[in-house]
Design brief:
Mean pLDDT: 84
Helix content: 55-70%
Strand content: under 5%
Low-confidence stretches: 147-151
Number of strands: 0
Number of helices: 5
Shape: elongated
Length: 151
């Protein structure tokens, strides 16, 4: 009997790490950020054209309301996506990611591994594994391109 074998594509470690860190930084920014309040212009605008009976928004107030609602929806979706992804990690991985990237105060790696009582070497191994898992869960992994050899 022959065994079924397959090879998994190789992941570009640096680019994948960069994307995960960008996603976690975006998370931290979105936690603090709120939609900039845009106020509609109060100057009367007169037109000789009759009002339109279509569903198109021509009012500045309507455009701002739609823009704010879209921004809030995208923001909440992204934050929820990150929460779900982090909750799928193991307890150690989750602890590292939350303490290092998801808290309000920025912390350095050495502060985190001292705080949770982990050796530096183990900390970086667990952190790297957490990054790969997050990349796969969030579907932001980057694969290394293999050079094809022409015969």
């Amino acid at each position: 009997m022959s065994q079924l074998s397959f090879t998994l594509p190789e992941i570009n470690r640096e680019e994948t790490k960069k994307r995960v860190e960008e996603a976690l930084e975006k998370y931290r920014i979105l936690l603090l950020q709120t939609f900039e309040e845009e106020l509609p212009k109060l100057t009367a605008n007169y037109s000789f054209l009759p009002p339109s009976k279509s569903n198109v928004n021509f009012s500045n107030t309507e455009n701002i309301a739609v823009k704010k609602a879209d921004y809030d929806r995208h923001r909440k979706q992204f934050l929820a996506q990150i929460h779900k992804a982090v909750n799928r990690l193991s307890q150690q991985e989750r602890s590292i990611i939350i303490n290092r990237y998801m808290s309000q105060e920025e912390a350095y790696d050495y502060e985190i591994y001292n705080q949770i009582g982990m050796s530096e070497r183990k900390y970086y191994r667990v952190k790297t594994r957490a990054f790969y898992k997050l990349a796969l869960i969030l579907n932001i992994e980057v694969y290394a391109e293999r050079e094809s050899v022409m015969n």
